[in-house]
Amino acid sequence: MSEVPPIHVALLPSAGMGHLTPFLRLAAMLVHHNCHVTLITTHPTVSKSESDQISKFHSSFPQVNQLHFHLLPPSDASATKADPFFLRFEAIRSSSHLLPSLLSSVSPPLSSFVYDMTLISPLLPVADSLGVPHYILFTSSATMLSFFSYFPTVSASLPTLNDVEIPGVSSIPRSSIPPMLLVPNSLFGNIFNEDGPKLTKLHGVLINTFEELEAQSLEALNGGKMVKELPPVYAVGPFVPGEFEKEDQRGAPLKWLDDKAKGSVVYVTFGSRTAMGRDQMREIGEGLVRSGSMFLWVVKGKKVDREEEEEGLEGLLGLELVEKIKERGLVVKEWVDQREILDHEAVGGFVSHCGWNSVVEAAWYGVPIMGWPLGGDQKINAEVVSNKGWGVWNKDWGWEGENVVKGEEIGEAIREMMNDESLRIKAAEVKEAARKAISVGGRGEVTLQKLIEKWNKF
Ligand code: UDX
């Protein structure tokens, strides 16, 4: 009897750490399930932090012979449009015709193709021609997926729309709709409008979430009221954050945390894309000092980097504030490995923009969240956290740049989070459920296993 060739899955992420990270984690899970994985990215629009992350992932991975990498050529789109997301989108669109010959020649033969949620329109015709089942990885929450699929139904009436009532899912207030969707003809608005109706053409949607976190949305998406419009939704999360660096490579932030009391430190960061203005940065600094907690604050973003290059942290925040900060906190400018911070027992709270990967990581490590959603899907994600009872967020703070939230208010909100025992208890429950979901026999693990068996039969 001839031997069945191993499963081979091609993965194609979009730009940004928030998209690349879950693809790398999915790759690791698939390799762990004995699949081969080909990861396709583009050059040179892969940013420094992305290529660092890919090579770190590559070199730290033991089953290297099961992992293959392929770079698509760069886009000839105008270099003046420097937004990495746009460039990646264009690079993928302009070189998608290369995929059939690339993917038909891989060894072992291709079993399935998983691409980013934002790439349905450019990749659907190609994916259809490959003769294998194809899926998107939706890199946000299931609640956001329900909004994504429902958006074209309401988009024509957006100027006058109030709350969006999604069948079977809680309603999304107008104030939580991603602001970029309210701008006529925005890149994302067009993607949502064009791609929502195309979901039915996929073999399914993979998503980094788990039943206990989003039961209601998952039920609505899978066999609930939204079933007619959607292919199967596979909740294969939470994606395991992965292995850490060796002991002797632990960076300064971890060493700083080492002598702090259990649960005493607030970790503050706003994801990989956000760049706050100077006024808001100063108020955050004031708020952290007023909160009374120790804190680890990752300050980054294009605006801040530029200003810092010219004038340093003292110039940005003022000498007096920097002195006060030094008494209670550590400010870090470079990229830190967030997983390691959230895993540290000194960390007792997380001030987060609620990017979905950050939310799932906080669930995995059982850390309470004070959500400060700033754009995109983040208010919808923050609501998932607060519904679950392991986090809070202030709905009056608006989107990034709408208001400058005062230090007094920020300090008070952090103090409330750090003193709220119920958040801590809920966070521990969510952590337990997260780990159970992907342990042997857990729902996420079984779902992934069944999917792989399906590819095998195909
Ligand atoms: C964005 C959206 O907010 C997210 O919901 C969407 O689905 C993908 O795009 P982003 O803003 O980058 O993502 O945030 P997040 O989803 O939290 O992803 C950031 C990733 O980078 C996380 O895995 C986080 O652990 C990692 N990170 C971030 C670090 O390791 N170090 C840092 O200093 C900052």
Automatic annotation (TrEMBL):
<keyword id="KW-0808">Transferase</keyword>
<dbReference type="InterPro" id="IPR050481">
    <property type="entry name" value="UDP-glycosyltransf_plant"/>
</dbReference>
<comment type="similarity">
    <text>Belongs to the UDP-glycosyltransferase family.</text>
</comment>
<keyword id="KW-0328">Glycosyltransferase</keyword>
<dbReference type="Pfam" id="PF00201">
    <property type="entry name" value="UDPGT"/>
</dbReference>
<dbReference type="InterPro" id="IPR002213">
    <property type="entry name" value="UDP_glucos_trans"/>
</dbReference>
<protein>
    <recommendedName>
        <fullName>Glycosyltransferase</fullName>
        <ecNumber>2.4.1.-</ecNumber>
    </recommendedName>
</protein>
<dbReference type="GO" id="GO:0035251">
    <property type="term" value="F:UDP-glucosyltransferase activity"/>
</dbReference>
<dbReference type="InterPro" id="IPR035595">
    <property type="entry name" value="UDP_glycos_trans_CS"/>
</dbReference>
